[in-house]
Amino acid sequence: MSRVIFGVSEDFLGTAILSLRRQLGYSQEKLARELGCSTGAVRQWESGLRRPSLAAVERLRQLAPDDETRASFTFKSEISNLKSAPPPPTPAVRLPAPGDDVELIRYHNDAAEGLSLLYECAAAGHPGAKALLKAEAERLLRKGTEWRDLKYSKLSK
What we know:
By secondary structure, the chain is mainly alpha-helical. It has helices at residues 10-24, 28-35, 39-47, 54-63, 67-71, 76-82, 102-123, 129-155, and strands spanning 4-5, 8-9.
């Protein structure tokens, strides 16, 4: 389950940390020493299982060798300043009722939150976010329509 930190998903942040570490030629141990944390923390950040602290993200940003890499560690408030963007639509959060599949509801809520954040990044001018939002929206709509049509075609037989 990917959450969002500073306006960026943990998965993206994890990939950015891994990419920065490799770019610097650091092992997980060396990066952990630089950041004053455990190797396990770095491993969990890179895999998206845990989020780094604000101080760790700022330190990662300082370690970045160029502006493009530093942009991966730009905070939400700074992304919002890139361009005035309308607020993202509020995702339709579902609350489980007795007997509901809680895991399924969690997936729904995570997907809704992810799309909302992707919209926010695209509206703020984040590179690649608009294209990714379009591709994901088209894919979800296509698959959802196919499966819904399949469901109803089986019911009518």
